[in-house]
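Anyone opening a protein record will find just a pair of labelled lines. A complete record is shown below as an example:
=====
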Amino acid sequence: MKFIDEATIKVYAGDGGNGVATFRREKYEPMGGPNGGDGGRGGSIIVEADRNINTLVDYRYSRVFRAQRGENGRGSDRYGAGGEDMLLRVPVGTVISDKASEQMLVDLSEHGQRVMIAKGGNGGLGNIHFKSSINRSPRQCTKGDPGEEFELYLELKVLADVGLLGMPNAGKSTFIRSVSAAKPKVADYPFTTLHPNLGVVRVDTNRSFVIADIPGLIEGAAEGAGLGHQFLRHLARTSLLLHLVDLAPFDESIDPVKEARAIIEELRKYDEDLYTKPRWLVLNKVDMLADVSDKVKAFVKEFGWEGRVFAISAISGIGCKELTYAIMEHLEQTRDAELDTQTSGQQDDVAAG
């Protein structure tokens, strides 16, 4: 199934019911006072993040959502019933924007997070509200307010701690199969991965992290070439990027350094924040090389890389364990640093108060 990670929908909150102008007409009171009730409130559109939903595919086929209209008021002081709210469930990690203004409305990053995205209209007033000392028989009533309506753009960003970055056939799918229980499709042709795969890497009983296998990039991905431009956004939430490079390509005419530079250039073009994220270099398929150390040193020197480097073989598992432990340690240190920053910030606020 193709991964659907974006959708455009229209939402219509319910209109409020109309108020009515009625009067008491009883046997012993043929000319009674006003008793028209108010209209009911229109139903609202509410969006909730649900971790049991993985894609936005439901919103590809159903694009229009209308909440229930409020009932009109009736005589004998009877108010109209309110319309039922409509609940739309989306995956955790969904960002909702207004299609017209392109302004982000909400980022649903936690399970159970709920937001009213379109408010139902208020009900109209019945004529009992217009009675006064000089107007005993008011015939005024008001109509219900229209509900809010929007055209929304839904975009799903994968929630993962680590993102795998690399050209097609760099070995990303093989790596995620090697270190987690995820079973992405693996084959010897480009663009095997047509949608992001998530895998949970369990380092210890209570120590684990989520890794995302993002479809391969090609040059021009930031401008829309290939598949990569659709999925670069999934890397935005990750804390660490692993840049996988095929150090032993089947086609000897392929230059690993040139391909690695092309990936970095795509990152820079697409998003400066993404470009400056912590990034490690992972040189894959070292089991196919005789002089691993020399090849790794030569690549790092030509590439001009000064960050952390890992040489692994995803298919045989060489170096994978060491890499996953290093990732876990990095993530824990990052979380501790963020927690310290938040704590110190709260303490500063208390002291200032």
